[in-house]
Amino acid sequence: MKTRDPSALVLTGLFLTSLLVQCTRADTQSVPGSTENDIATNATNNFLGHLADSRVIGGVAIVQKDGKLAFAQGFGSASEELDVKLQDDCTFPIGSNTKFFTAVAIYQLQEKGLLNVTDVVNSYVEPADFGLALPWCPKIHDKEQLGCQEPTIKQLLQMSSGLLPVDNLGCGTPNSTWSDADWFWQYRSFDWDLKWGEAMGYTGNWLSGNATHTDLLKFQKLFDQPLLHAPGSQYCYVNSNFQLAGYIVEKVTNMSFGSYLVENIIKPANLSNTYYWTGALGWEPEGLHRRAVSVPAYRTTFEGGSGPAAYKKINRYPWFPGQSSTAAQAAGSMSSNAHDLLRFYNVIVTQPDVIGLSKDTVANLTEPLQPIPGLDASFAQGIAVSDGPGKAKRLAYTGEIWGFAAQITMWVNPSDPSKSDAVVFFSNLSPAIPFGADGSCSVVSPQDGSRIDLDSRACGNENGAGMTDILTDQLAKIWGITGNFGSI
Ligand SMILES: *[C@@H]1O[C@H](CO)[C@@H](O)[C@H](O)[C@H]1NC(C)=O
Ligand SMILES: *[C@@H]1O[C@H](CO)[C@@H](O)[C@H](O)[C@H]1NC(C)=O
Ligand SMILES: *[C@@H]1O[C@H](CO)[C@@H](O)[C@H](O)[C@H]1NC(C)=O
Ligand SMILES: *[C@@H]1O[C@H](CO)[C@@H](O)[C@H](O)[C@H]1NC(C)=O
Ligand SMILES: *[C@@H]1O[C@H](CO)[C@@H](O)[C@H](O)[C@H]1NC(C)=O
Ligand SMILES: *[C@@H]1O[C@H](CO)[C@@H](O)[C@H](O)[C@H]1NC(C)=O
Ligand SMILES: *[C@@H]1O[C@H](CO)[C@@H](O)[C@H](O)[C@H]1NC(C)=O
After folding, report:
1. In the chain, what are the domains?
2. Do strands 404-412 and 421-432 pair parallel, antiparallel, or not at all (unpaired)?
3. Ligand 6 within 6 A of CB of 471
4. Cα–chain-centroid distance for residue 387?
5. Which residue from 117, 187, 280, 287 has the fewest beta carbons nearer than 10 Å?
6. Is the dihedral of CA 244, 250, 256, 262 positive or negative?
7. Above 80 in pLDDT, residue 27?
């Protein structure tokens, strides 16, 4: 493991205290429609309330049944320090959920005849923007003799372009681990985030959110790098794919990516609590961060012993200002609330014309393409898709940034998409729980001393476990969501 410059941590507190937390709405929106809903509402409140009081989770849960909002509630704190409770409409950084917005933007431009997703990326890359004398000629590492290999825009959105995983080490070598001696490292700085902050001098465009995708790709030296594999030949989750797509949006429209999103997606889809911000957190123009949870997220540490793990402390998730969303841009710089993200998905499956997409385009955009290793899902384009029972499609995504996890899962009703089911969980707290000596995964509630048995996925990660999968499974169970909409 390479270490980061600890002096950068000093700045953290400065950003934290400058954030106003206005996440204070009093009432919630759960809609009891029937006795069954009352029972499920109660079960959800009991289940999540106990976990939140015991500091195992914190976040916002939303359930949609038959196309109607069935449950919406915040659990835990928006700010532990200021003792502000989470409400269901609080805004969170949604990280990689941004990618689906970017994919939608590209397809909107195709609908307008401004590009074709099967075009090669190079048709839209202006060499002068990157100080290149000649057009970009992407060559595959160790297969340079094959000459230029041109990824298409669609391959960017499918994560199959072959771009080097400069900020993601999860794929690449056959064993998925780059050794220190590997050729790859010459193209990737170890302290990536910090260098970006240094390059921009912790000032100017970097702080103010004015850095463009051109700035970012230039910094990454993207066009000086070889491809990892032939375009289209394999799936590799690399953020630069979406940053390059963001560059194409800016190039084709002559708008900043943020302005493009506001005019073409956020306004027409009525996502009034959704925004794009690429500067340093806490520097957002007044009003933008209304109802925002404080940043970064929290981590609860539990201590192992002979029995269930005992509560020890709650801290901020490790973070430093170099990890600004400037380095994420079209791959992860949006914030939203759980209602808005759900609304976006509903617009996509029920009335995509509102944002200028035909149903055919949505079908193409959500067509499962590249199997995701280790998951029972496929990566379509900025969204993961799997086939549920009865031909129902399950659309899902999890965005993670600064300890937050924003997860949405929608089971699309094939006979009437306006009657689809969904579970959304936005989390701002993750637990670090050791397994018990007997292999069990459980904690003693610091609230009432009771023993809480947990899904084994919640234990064994000292950085904190992502709880959103576990909670989504459990909420689907409580609300009778199976993805099976009956015979069609
Ligand atoms: C809801 O839960 C509370 C406490 O667990 C219980 O007293 C109440 O009867 C429950 N109500 C329903 C409708 O299940
Ligand atoms: C994009 O180009 C392909 C191949 O040239 C063509 O088949 C397709 O119809 C085009 N799509 C659009 C939306 O123009
Ligand atoms: C992974 O594979 C590469 C070769 O592709 C090798 O150099 C490296 O040592 C391997 N790492 C581990 C941890 O096995
Ligand atoms: C960032 O852009 C805004 C206008 O979009 C401008 O008012 C501001 O001065 C810029 N900030 C910097 C540091 O360039
Ligand atoms: C792009 O927009 C800028 C300012 O918004 C303007 O000055 C410039 O002329 C535009 N370029 C094109 C090619 O439309
Ligand atoms: C957005 O809100 C406007 C005004 O309230 C309404 O006319 C429009 O139908 C809404 N659009 C969607 C997609 O809900
Ligand atoms: C959908 O994809 C097919 C095959 O890739 C293509 O022929 C068709 O034009 C696409 N439709 C739209 C609306 O993009």
Report:
1. 18-96+265-478 (3.40.710), 101-255 (3.40.710.10)
2. antiparallel
3. no
4. 21
5. 287
6. negative
7. no
